[in-house]
# Entry
Amino acid sequence: MPELIYSLAGKRVYVAGHRGMVGSAIVRRLASEGCEILTATRAEVDLRRQDQVEAWMSENRPDAVFLAAARVGGILANATYPADFLYDNLVLQANVIHAAHRANVEKLMFLGSSCIYPKFADQPIVEDSLLAGSLEPTNEWYAIAKIAGLKLCQAYRKQHGRDFISAMPTNLYGPGDNFDLGSSHVMPALIRKAHEAKINRQQEICIWGTGTPRREFLHVDDCADACLHLMKTYSAESHVNVGSGEDISILELTRLVSKIVGFKGKITRDLGKPDGTPRKLLSVDKLRTLGWSPKIGLKEGIADAYHAFLDGHCLERSNGQSDISFERAKTSALHAPTHSPVAHHPRG
Ligand code: GFB
# Structure
């Protein structure tokens, strides 16, 4: 067992982005840690406003912070809204990290993304591949922001001795996902397409691109568990990859989702849509050495995500964009409601 170096028990723990898929999973997972969970809605604190973030932080004085707030979206949203993805993420993460430093937060975790790595990085991608080559153009804006976020954590550690760490999750899915077909990632899009085709007795579903790119998927509850594990056992400058260690082609994934959902028709391809990076399989050696491995298999995870979709536990955005202000994600069949002591601490 890895050594516990930071206990969350009895601590005031702020989850920034608690209404998003990742933040809500972290809130669920924190429920068994014996800590006080702090959250703030966007109406209470707009994380893009430095004055609001600093005022909230100095008033509420969290001991620990999970920075899971971000403007996120799939390949098309990333490519269509480069300014939003770069500006919103740069600003909100800088505000939270700097305010956490000023408020003497003991420990902070910044969550990034596997798209920080070069488009043609050697596979599986080790943490040291960072900045070794050019980025994938469809998501370089988001990637640049996430690289800046992890560098900011390193800088505050170097200059001010802050215990700020970074985790880089692979492609995530699960309850609380965004199922809007214009802005979502591939997993929720496939679940929705297959389900609607089944219900409407359509003969085919259409996927974007060639179907040959490979992606690695991790259920969001596994990701939350890994984040807590790292928060409690890891303290160093380098970021840590968080993945399952296995990938699958988009075409194979479409077949698997279709089977789980019960859609038996054909799969066609829209070659006018981008493929993105050909492959991004993370090396999870470091995480395994630190004593963590995933528990939710892909089939079980997809079934869980599908049930969450059926239960309406999804975030739909009618404007075709993801947003840093999320609808509250509910819990899924895999994970019972926690009724955790979520404390809202409105400003002033
Ligand atoms: O999940 P996704 O949007 O993002 O797409 P990325 C993954 C692959 O699935 C791409 C294909 O090759 C898509 O062309 N795909 C097939 C589809 N059908 C669909 C569909 O209906 N919807 C979507 N969305 N894709 C994102 C980055 O990249 O991954 C972000 O843009 C972030 O910055 C995130 O890093 C984790 O894996 O290509």
